[in-house]
Amino acid sequence: MRIITAAQGKNSLEVIAGIIQSTWRPGSFVDVDDARDAILAAERIGGGTPMPMLSEMTDVEISAAARHAFAQTTGVSAIAVLGSSAVDRVLAAAMSRYTRYPHRFFTSRDDALAWLRTVTATPIDAPSP
User: Fold this and answer.
1) How far apart (Å, rounded) are the C-alpha atoms in residues 18 and 52?
2) Rounded to whole angstroms, how far apart are CA atoms 14 and 68?
3) Taking the complete model, does pTM exceed 0.85, yes or no?
4) Distance, CA of 119 to CA of 129 (rounded, Å)
């Protein structure tokens, strides 16, 4: 399993069972440069093929420009955002208005993975290559 970091170490990404798992460090502020770096990292780890992503963004602040950059990416096929607070939910909702891919907020990792499975038909339980 290969883990890469992006956004000056605020974000770590790895592929597990065909899903990009992106984890943002709690308390981080994500600006547009961080977003662009994370987008490039997701494209790199996905080998240039759009893949589903589980993005854990608990207690992360995202600038409007970063939200716009994330919404415009073509490097993912769907995103399940995992958070824990009303603020996390509001940030996810703000991004979902402009995305070009299925996007949904969850407070449960299992529910998020189940949704990704139905949206992308990805065999999440399959072993990683």
Assistant:
1) 8
2) 23
3) no
4) 21
Residues 69-85: tens digit of each pLDDT: 988 888 899 999 998 76
- Least Cα distance to 128 among 47, 70, 24, 60 occurs for 47
Please report where in the chains the tokens 């996007």 appear, as a residue.
103
Note the pLDDT of residue 127. 41
Q: Which two tokens stand for residue 43?
A: 């494209």
- pLDDT of amino acid 6: 97
- What is d(CA 44, CA 103) in angstroms, rounded to the nearest whole number? 21
CA dihedral over 42, 44, 46, 48, signed as positive or negative: positive
Look up residue 61 and give its amino acid: E
Supply angle C-alpha 13, 19, 22, rounded to 5.
Answer: 25
